[in-house]
Write a structure and sequence with these properties.
The protein is α/β, with parallel strands linked by helices and about 350 residues long. Helices cover about 50% and strands about 15% of the residues.
Length: about 350
């Protein structure tokens, strides 16, 4: 069994999957190197207990198409040698798409974890990657009822399995240990009296006009704010001459991407989260923290429907209105969304199908 990963969200999800995998299979972990920055991925092995990968492909920074092409070529050679029973991919990144293609060209069955999510914007690289992986996969492990429905609407009928969300399993693992992190204490941040901001998607941090709109929103916020700055966003802010104005803001605390548990603690203690991250939208919901989505659409429309999230895009007026609204976060009526131990469901299904074990 080969699992291919390479970004911070994939590290998080794999951290609750790999031990279950290795209890049933001879498991090979391959790090694509898509997140090569230590702040994004380097600290995760020590923090989560995830063991070191067996192979590192050194992908690094490039356009999405270049990353996918390079990974497909590099990984295909290793898959020829390893001849695994299956390849597992996670999420919607360039690593997901490249590994899915490599497995398909070697005729190796593909399992897609976090299948079926759709934002219905085909221009985004993440949507392309999801659709590609879902339509190549033999197993489509879905985190929500909406994800299952999306696949059926696209004409897929086989291999759809509602198993729950690995992010929820991870959040459950750490929830009892979420204390205000050292950074919050050092900055004097009080619970529910600060905002937590992340922004990493290419359409937000690579497009100058949208990045300027993000900076305007940050300057207009009415409470102390922690902004965890993605390395690419930091580079583009400096290139556009915007970084210095953020540094001078007295109530804006700039930090590189934080380790996972301090990030979860900051989300849990925030008055609101402003983000373009799908993972943080769910972590905010589980923590009952209002979430303002800095996009005009989301893969997690059920969180908007239950009052946990608001779509504001990079529109300062919509952000302002969201911050002053009366939030009522309702429980989500979804049989899959809060299933416990999805890692065991995934591994059990793979074991049944690949080795003929009896379903339990």
């Amino acid at each position: 069994m080969v699992t291919v990963f390479g970004t911070r969200p994939q590290f998080i999800k794999l951290s609750v999957l790999w031990e279950a995998l290795e209890s049933r299979f001879r498991s090979i972990l391959i790090d694509s190197g898509q997140h090569y920055d230590f702040a994004l991925a380097g600290s995760f092995h020590a923090e989560t207990g995830l063991r070191q990968p067996d192979l590192h492909l050194g992908l690094g920074s490039a356009s999405a198409a270049t990353q996918i092409g390079q990974l497909t070529e590099r990984l295909e050679r290793h898959l020829t040698r390893l001849a695994p029973d299956a390849v597992i991919v996670i999420g919607d990144t360039s690593t997901t798409a490249g590994a899915a293609l490599a497995a398909a060209y070697r005729n190796i069955p593909l399992a897609h974890v976090e299948a079926g999510l759709r934002c219905f914007d085909p221009s985004t690289p993440e949507e392309k990657n999801r659709i590609l992986a879902d339509h190549l996969a033999a197993w489509r492990f879905c985190p929500s009822r909406a994800a299952v429905a999306n696949l059926r609407r696209e004409g897929i009928q086989l291999g759809i399995l509602g198993v729950g969300d690995l992010m929820y399993e991870n959040w459950q693992r750490w929830r009892a240990e979420l204390r205000p992190p050292e950074t919050a204490t050092r900055w004097g941040l009080l619970p529910r009296e600060y905002y937590f901001v992340t922004c990493h998607r290419a359409q937000n941090v690579d497009e100058p006009d949208r990045l300027r709109r993000l900076v305007a929103i940050l300057h207009a916020l009415d409470r102390p704010t922690v902004f965890a700055v993605h390395p690419r966003a930091r580079k583009n802010l400096a290139r556009l001459g915007l970084w210095s104005s953020l540094k001078r803001h007295p109530d804006l605390y700039l930090t590189p991407p934080l380790p996972h548990r301090p990030s979860l603690a900051l989300i849990a203690g925030a008055r609101a989260v402003l983000t373009d991250s799908g993972g943080i939208q769910r972590e905010a919901y589980w923590s009952r923290t209002p979430c303002i989505v800095l996009r005009d659409r989301t893969e997690w429309n059920e969180l908007v429907a239950c009052g946990a999230s608001v779509l504001a895009d990079l529109n300062a007026d919509r952000v302002r209105r969201a911050l002053i609204r009366r939030w009522r976060i309702r429980a989500l009526d979804d049989p899959y969304f809060r299933l416990r131990r999805p890692s065991e469901r995934i591994v059990r299904r793979l074991a049944v199908d690949l080795s003929g074990e009896q379903a339990k």
